[in-house]
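Running this now, will post back.
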Amino acid sequence: MLKCLTVIKNFVFQRVWRENGLNLAILGGLLWASRYVYTPSYGLYEDDLTIIPTAVAMSFPELGEYIWNYITNLYGHARPLSDSFIYLFSNLGWRLADLQGAYILGFLIELLNIFLFYFLILKIADRRLAVLSGMAYSLFSADTTQIFLTHSLGLQPSITLLLLALHNYVSGRRIIAYLLASIILFSYETPFLVFLAAPFLQKIWGKSILKEIGAHIMVVGAILLAVFQLRVIVADDRVLGITITETIKTSVEHMIQGSATSLYSYIYRPYQVAHWLDIPAITIGIICSFFVILGWMYVIKIHRFEPGAGNTVHEALQPLWKPGLAGLVMLSMAYPLTFTVRPFILAGRETRAHSAAVVGAALVVGVILYLLIAVAERIRLKALVPIGLAGLFSLLVGFGFSIQQDYRQAWQFQRDFWTKLLPLIQDVGPGTVILVDNAGLSEPAQIQANTWNLPRTLHQIYTFPVEWDGKHPGVFRLSGGWENTLVSPEHPQMVHISSETVQSPSAFYQDINSDNVILINTNEGVFTRHFTPLDLGEVTVVFKTQDDQVLNQFPTGFLYPYLNDPEK
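Update: finished.
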């Protein structure tokens, strides 16, 4: 035991930790402040509701068998590691501390990525650039999905693999670097091409740097082509039917749009926050983080250049153009594989388009701030540097508080939704469809509450009989203008469940007899069941009559205690 404590003591007090411990602690604190302060008020969202309950219910042997089967059969569009990570980490997290344990593991994965990024920059530049880029990384706000468990547990490990690959490449361990980068393509693939920038990250460029870059591009291209062919073989519907012309056009457009949007977010997010200062939590978060960052900037003397170490713009530029170029390459390469999302979006789950851009954007912003400090030194305004940095990054912390408010609100919206709905649908039977009008439903900006995943939720709140398998009752949120498309064009006495009427995965589209359909009105947030026939022009729809109250007689499922609040 004593020997173990000695080993830990020696590790903690190594020089690298003594010199960087404060920086790492503050960077981790910024991540926590901007994303995880309100963790006890977070819940499950969208894909979380489908994947995590299943994962949590597994024993360790069942989990291991499931993951092994998932990987060996290349499920999940031939990128099996992404879902496997979610299953593994959510299961471990739940054993640690229930739902909060999953969020703790998500935070630790992102914290590890921040540390890896910080030490990567230390390998290629000085501590000032590592600090500036580290802050830009910790508070990267083009992507607002860091809290989302499906992403923190399933997407962020791909960033970990990327950073480990870059570390190994810079350290000369090329084979390990390529192996780690290859694994990214079997996880969440968008960070893979960021690895193209690896040769640019070397501190010293030899005479053969162009040959090295060319060879590196060929190896990375060969790996990408091989995995692409594998996905064609397993019929990944995301790569089938895409022409080369469309691929190149989309990739170039996304590189331009995404890169500009990521950098723009460092200006736009503070501007957004300035309009929300009337929200107490945001204002308090900004004030507290401002003084913490300001004190930190003075402690590490961020604004003081050593004599002869770049105290002019020209001198500062010399050691920065290589990291700056590497950052631009990494930033642009974060977008060629983002085919299914729009990279100019800055709200909602679709901001995952920017997830892989965090490495390049943070480095570019770090270089820009470094140069601005050099300019401030030259024009004798260096005393304003700590204040300016504290102001910028504290506003980004404030934006993080707004994201957290949305996640808290979305979870409350879900709990309110089901608490109000369940008493009205106690007579559900096999295949019953519950349609909920969207008139009184609200959605936060950064994460959806009650939308497309509703049909997959009810049978996780209650456990229905085995003979109902394949015919579980489902809840659907109606789309705007649903009255015009509710009736099936082919069968006027049937209700038409499609993209025109509901928000739902296509697997749930169907035509169903109206006498097995329940309609819920939500005007002004008050849920009521619609019993009278609904006149839709030439057709009158007659809904399900109220039968025996059976729902509460079924065993409760995994989600019951999380989504239902009987006291309300």
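The chain has two domains: 2-410, 426-563. More later if anyone needs it.
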